[in-house]
Amino acid sequence: MKSITIYASTDSGYIVRSSTDYFHLNTATVLYVGQYSAYNVYRSFLKFPTTDIPANAVIRNAQFRGNAYLTVNNSRPFDVDIIKQDWSLYDPIVTTDLDTIFDACLVGTKDVTWHSFGIPDSSRLYATYFSDFLDTTWISTTDYTYYSLRSSRDATTDTPPGNELVILASVSSTNDSYKPALIIDYLELPADPVTNHIYYFLEIDWKGTGLVDSWQDEASRITRFALDRGRDRVIGAPGSGFEMPDIGKAIFTLDNHDGRFDAWNASSPLYSYIQPGRRCNFSCYYNGTYYDLMTGYIADIRPEGYKDTATLVIEDGAGWLNSKSPDIPLLDVSDVADAINAILDNLNYPFGRLIDNAIDDLDYYWTSGATGLAEIHKLANSDLGRFCVEANGRARFRNRHNSESVDHTITESQIGTNIYIPMPWDYSRSIVDVYTYPRITGTTDTTLWTLNDDPVINAGETMTLWGEYTYDNQAVPATGVYVAPSSDFSSTDLVVSAFSRDVKLELTNPTTDAQIITELIVKGTPIYSPDRIRIREEASNVSTLPAAFIMDYEWLTSINTAESFAEVLLSYLNDAKQYPEIIIYHRPDIACPIDLEDRLRLLIDTWNIDETFFVHKISHESGASMQELITTVNLYPMLQDIGTDTFILSSTDQGILDTNKLGF
User: Fold this and answer.
1) 471 and 450 in contact (C-beta within 8 Å)?
2) Segment 348-378, tens digit of pLDDT
3) Which helix (H) or strand (E) segment is 251 a member of?
């Protein structure tokens, strides 16, 4: 992997609008973003000469680097957001165009946040910040790339009570590290690629730094590979519900004739760097197009035989989420999308995300002790949404009203003849049980946990205790958690860290004598569901096919929504439907663009199939050589309409769901 730093052009600048609608452009030494009292609003406009990126490059990552020359903020926290605004038609900026350019910034699409500025955050000099990863599809390699910067408070037309302003160093700075810049990491494709030849890339961040000198391409060492992403089935066995996403896994056989991948080989150039957890990307290039196949991290690597081969195992972002359990304070959220984002933030998910807003309201969210993957699975399904980890590693949640069009159309002539379709009864269900959990918010100052012992803390020592909240003889989450005052703390320091379902108490004895703790009570406001409710829908053929589907997620709190879900699911599951499995032989141009949860239209005359499906599993493997790519794709049917207030399936070509609300 290579990297290039591209500095902003001298055509970049800022525009300020005052209360008298006076505009002024300055391209001198600094850039302004934010609001100054209630009178001036500043937005900056950046132009980058990205034609310096090689024409045969595939951009892997891009970040914006900026230097906050001075921060003046005595008001409130605010973000500086990077906006995908193409102002090329007004380049160079002149006085007559200021109004148009300025207003277009406000309605432009946010890419990512450059930095969040808190309070107090005044007079901080020369602080350099990097943005999250930018949308690489916005970056042009054949022309300039344009952005703008605006304040998040400005975007909501929120007049500040004070100053909320950041002054950035401009391209005129004499210090290159202060200049606004794009930091772009890329792969350089073959200059003269052979037609119908697959070029593979296996990029591994061996040093774990993420820097360019740490990434190395090991594709030339691959002798064979097999990878699986997605889940074997969407509908679980009778008596269960939706299946959990599986961990994506790729297994490579590598040429290890020189001991390169032996962690014990001190002469290997990778010595001390070979270990689980290193980030990886597996991809390919075919006939002018680049495809991600899997993004993740090393799960295991082991030599086989004496300096002969090595087996490398890579797991995708689902594995990352499954290896960690979030533990965050109880959140006051608006929907499951907020909760999913909170989990990804808490676990420092490194591969990007695209999270739709959810449909139904959600008042609170708390972690249950399950893994991040299990937590997100429950949240997504409680809204009848779809979650997956894409080939580029991005965590993707689609709500049930997602109206993306068909991504792929595959005909019988493009696939192998060994098509597999499960029997009609494999996924048919005649009973649907949907559980709902109406919530009660308890009173403040409720006792949640009590220390029922008299522990002794020796002089100068710290004792750490964990307390689990309970109320009405059940474990509960809680908000507003605190420790009730006690005389025991007169000589004992206490640090309270409240989480959603438990609290961490660190008691330190700073005295020279041992101290006895005789009383310790944790209080707060419990959130509980004392009476779970079941909604059941049964088909007329229940006696001949007594197979049940269970939807049981504590985030579903509305009885009316549960009734709608039960009706929709019974209609969907009771009718026999096809769940095809198809195999694509050596057609990277057809197979490699397919990703999990894409919409795929399948036309097979032999089976009388002309239907749009979702993708629930993808498998790629090499055949007799690395140039023989065999891809297996597993599909499941979309939900069908049963009424005007539920899912509505559009045309076969589009296969989109109407945006009418499902449920209440």
Assistant:
1) no
2) 898 888 888 888 888 888 888 899 999 999 9
3) strand 249-255
